[in-house]
């Protein structure tokens, strides 16, 4: 009997959404929790903002380095089994990071932690395409990404205020405990896989063939560029805005300045809404609208009024996550062969952009200041917009390949 995937009315579909939401929370709370305490970390260790931001950038670099190896492991042991190993390993490493004796050890462990965490974003969307009916994967992917926004916000909102009260170690230990609880939810809820069977025939050549196929597709390359450029700018804003808010211009205390990460709620809403917008307006229009909205939000943060800065952050966050949710779903729909490698490459670009741009724009902040950071973010969004207009066809589902059987496109 042909397996077409779980439907929204099924118990397994709901368990998948809740389980992957918990995995997204666990992954992104750990990945970005140091971002909520960067000013505290910089002051405590007497380092520059750019050096403090390495605690974020090295973790995202680890994700970028690991997503392709994880896709190969998943082909051999199964998507779900690989994600289970990744989430348990990262939970242990989260505790070790909090207990690091010095900055060097912390940065080394953050790199390894990022490599472990890479197993979740590398495989989650591919898993959804395997297990969920093809007509509902966009909505399911949007639900997963909304879980990542909750996780990203939770990690920062827990770590930031706590660091100002009790120090960065207890703050990171608290985040690690929350992530461990979310990991248990994931491990308990996920149903037995039915849409993909691992094979020992998966080899380095299989991975290489999938990579070559993806890199020959101009539409996929444009989608990878969206991830790198938009994520890089987005992370840079969140890396360095807290330094501005806690500086002489606004003089907010650390426990208050870190609350800017509550703006992630706008991303939670917009990423969920893309599941409704895409069928109505088409993927390219939603992607372009999200990019323009992100750039407009960045410009609003130039204001000297705190309320306008916060509004700009909300607008930027909503626009970014709408664009990201759309672009990541487009990759899975576009790739008819080597889907695991195609989605892994998107994550390489996405987290590579986060690591590189999120670090480099620290020098823009330390030099010319906030206007230079915003100018760079708007420039990155403009390049992403031009590439999307040039390379993504403008039909209703622009990045989708010609129709084929939903299960024919899996491998």
Automatic annotation (TrEMBL):
Boundaries of every Major facilitator superfamily (MFS) profile domain copy: 16-396
Localization of this protein: Cell membrane
Database matches in SUPFAM superfamilies: MFS general substrate transporter
Transmembrane regions listed in the UniProt entry: 12-32, 52-73, 85-109, 171-190, 219-238, 250-274, 286-307, 313-332, 344-364, 370-392
UniProt topology in membrane: Multi-pass membrane protein
Keywords associated with the record: Cell membrane, Membrane, Transmembrane, Transmembrane helix, Transport
Signal peptide: none
Pfam families reported in the protein's UniProt record: MFS_1
InterPro entries per record: MFS, MFS_dom, MFS_trans_sf
Family to which this protein belongs: Belongs to the major facilitator superfamily.
Matching PANTHER family: BLL2771 PROTEIN (PTHR43271), INNER MEMBRANE TRANSPORT PROTEIN YNFM (PTHR43271:SF1)
Protein name per UniProt: MFS transporter
Species classification: Bacteria, Bacillati, Actinomycetota, Actinomycetes, Micrococcales
């Amino acid at each position: 009997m042909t397996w077409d995937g779980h439907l929204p009315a099924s118990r397994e579909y709901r368990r998948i959404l809740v389980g992957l939401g918990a995995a997204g929370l666990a992954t992104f709370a750990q990945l970005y929790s140091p971002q909520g305490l960067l000013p505290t970390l910089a002051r405590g260790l007497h380092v520059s903002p750019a050096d403090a931001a390495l605690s974020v950038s090295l973790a995202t670099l680890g994700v970028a380095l690991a997503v392709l190896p994880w896709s190969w492991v998943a082909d051999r042991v199964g998507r779900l089994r690989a994600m289970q190993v990744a989430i348990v390993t990262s939970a242990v490493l989260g505790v070790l990071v909090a207990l690091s004796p010095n900055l060097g050890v912390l940065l080394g462990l953050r790199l390894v932690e990022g490599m472990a965490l890479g197993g979740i974003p590398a495989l989650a969307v591919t898993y959804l395409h395997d297990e969920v009916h093809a007509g509902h994967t966009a909505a399911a992917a949007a639900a997963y990404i909304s879980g990542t926004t909750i996780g990203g916000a939770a990690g920062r909102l827990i770590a930031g205020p706590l660091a100002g009260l009790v120090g960065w170690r207890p703050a990171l230990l608290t985040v690690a405990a929350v992530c461990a609880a979310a990991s248990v939810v994931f491990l308990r809820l996920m149903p037995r896989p039915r849409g993909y069977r691992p094979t020992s025939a998966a080899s380095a050549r299989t991975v290489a063939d999938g990579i070559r196929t993806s890199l020959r597709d101009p539409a996929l390359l444009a989608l990878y560029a969206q991830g790198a450029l938009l994520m890089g700018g987005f992370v840079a804003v969140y890396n360095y805005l807290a330094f501005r808010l806690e500086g002489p211009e606004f003089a907010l205390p650390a426990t208050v300045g870190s609350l800017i990460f509550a703006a992630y709620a706008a991303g939670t809403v917009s990423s969920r809404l893309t599941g409704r917008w895409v069928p109505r307006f088409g993927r390219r229009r939603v992607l372009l609208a999200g990019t323009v909205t992100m750039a407009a939000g960045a410009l609003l943060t130039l204001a000297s009024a705190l309320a306008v800065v916060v509004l700009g952050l909300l607008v930027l966050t909503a626009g970014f996550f709408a664009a990201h949710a759309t672009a990541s779903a487009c990759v899975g729909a576009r790739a008819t062969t080597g889907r695991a490698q195609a989605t892994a490459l998107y994550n390489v670009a996405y987290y590579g952009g986060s690591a590189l741009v999120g670090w480099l724009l620290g020098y823009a902040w330390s030099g010319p200041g906030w206007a230079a950071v915003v100018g760079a973010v708007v420039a990155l969004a403009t390049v992403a917009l031009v590439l999307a207009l040039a390379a993504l066809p403008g039909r209703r589902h622009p990045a989708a390949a010609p129709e084929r059987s939903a299960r024919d496109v899996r491998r």
